[in-house]
UniProtKB/TrEMBL annotation:
Protein name, as recorded: Cdc6-related protein, AAA superfamily ATPase
Positions of the UniProt region annotated as Disordered: 352-374
Source organism of this protein record: Halogeometricum rufum
Domain Orc1-like AAA ATPase: 36-183
Gene3D superfamilies recorded: 1.10.8.60, P-loop containing nucleotide triphosphate hydrolases
Length: 391
């Protein structure tokens, strides 16, 4: 355990009481550790592909694929953070009489396609990582950004950029990366991270689901940072890992929800009943919470109000839209909310559950919109605009 954690643990119990939850953010399924747990082999495979960069050469383009919760983002984010932090600055090279030309410098940067959801936004995000001057958000065209990126990556500068969440609904597809970076192909290569790229023409590194023991190690490491000592035993963590079936996101979300339930009743341990509640709040095959939190604020507010409604108040999409629009915090018409609900269902953020009908009338039975993610975690992560992790 880190020294700062040891001191922090004692400060948190300064009132003489034993607090079950020390740091709820440690169980946040949308956050990543600086040192990924149980992914050493994957890190080595990625470093093998990036190895030319350590000799000043540009690596080939690469795709990193795997199912939700396999740790793709965690591994790539941690790796690129470390590479960026340890890359010598461009100004650190001193010329000599025998070698006046500076050797090529390979730099590393990472962007998220959930925020950079168009070619323009992608180019702008990459420029913001490498350019010293401000990058305009509007008033320039995509071609101008391409030219500026080409000017930034001169003969002595190379860039490897990781683009996370490529190929999701409403993010850029893989071929957009090829077209966006075509003009700097000799100076820039990418690492595209996503669920699958069936038509990829570049080398691919597959990240498999966690096995049960590895996932238990991940959950144990996070629980040791977030909960009081001995708040959850190894057997309980193993049961969560088995239930999560290799999905670290769902395992963390379940443990997060279980901890919230236990703390709400002033329990001193996360027992089986709280774990059951935490698991029940996580839909099987559900949507990633990071994806939900990346939605525009207006849509997150719609989701927050929808989650607060009693199922009886949302027996259909139309009824749900009317109820959500009636909330004073939602500045949208019922028609707009209805359209948003349908779009969120199409994207997998919501599920539409058939509710049946009392008559045998024609047409399809009505469907009730339900969150396809843990609303417990969503609410505590501030999905509706208020950060409650410390509560």
């Amino acid at each position: 355990m880190r020294l700062t954690d040891r001191i922090d643990r004692r400060r948190r119990r300064g009132d003489g009481t034993r607090r079950l939850v020390r740091n709820l953010s440690a169980l946040d399924p949308t956050s990543h550790l600086a040192e990924p747990v149980g992914r050493g082999a994957t890190l080595e495979r990625l470093l093998d592909r990036l190895d030319p960069a350590f000799d000043g050469r540009l690596p080939d383009n690469l795709c990193v694929v795997g199912p939700k919760g396999a740790g793709k983002s965690a591994v790539v984010t941690a790796l690129f953070d470390h590479l960026d932090a340890t890359t010598p600055s461009r100004g650190g090279t001193i010329g000599t009489t025998t070698r006046a030309a500076a050797p090529p410098t390979v730099e590393f940067a990472a962007v998220d396609a959930r925020a950079a959801d168009s070619e323009f936004a992608l180019l702008r995000a990459v420029l913001a990582e490498v350019a010293a001057a401000d990058v305009p958000e509007q008033g320039v065209g995509t071609a101008t950004l391409r030219d500026r990126l080409r000017a930034e990556l001169d003969r002595s500068r190379r860039l490897v950029v990781a683009v996370d969440h490529v190929g999701e609904s409403r993010t850029v597809p893989l071929d957009t990366l090829d077209s966006a970076f075509e003009s700097v192909a000799g100076s820039l290569s990418y690492v595209a991270v996503g669920r699958e790229f069936p038509d990829a023409s570049v080398e691919t590194v597959e990240v498999p689901r966690y096995d049960r023991h590895a996932l238990a190690d991940v959950l144990t490491a996070r629980a040791s940072d977030g909960l009081a000592r001995d708040a959850v035993d190894h057997e309980t963590v193993s049961r969560v890992a088995t239930w999560a079936d290799g999905d670290a996101h769902d395992g963390l979300a379940a443990l997060f929800g279980a901890s919230v339930a236990a703390a709400g009743e002033d329990a001193t341990h996360v027992d089986a009943e709280y774990v059951a509640a935490g698991r029940e709040a996580v839909p099987r095959g559900g949507c990633s919470l990071a994806r939900v939190l990346a939605l525009p604020a207006s849509r997150r507010r719609v989701l927050a109000v929808l989650a607060s409604l009693d199922p009886a108040d949302r027996p259909s999409v139309t009824a749900a839209a009317d109820a959500v629009a009636a909330d004073p915090s939602v500045d949208l018409s019922a028609a707009t909310v209805k359209r948003v609900l349908y779009e969120l269902a199409e994207d997998g953020v919501l599920r539409r559950v058939e509710t049946g009908r009392d008559d045998d009338g024609p047409g399809r039975p009505p469907t009730r919109p339900e969150a396809n993610f843990s609303t417990v975690v969503f609410e505590r992560l501030g999905g509706d605009g208020a950060n409650r992790l410390g509560r």
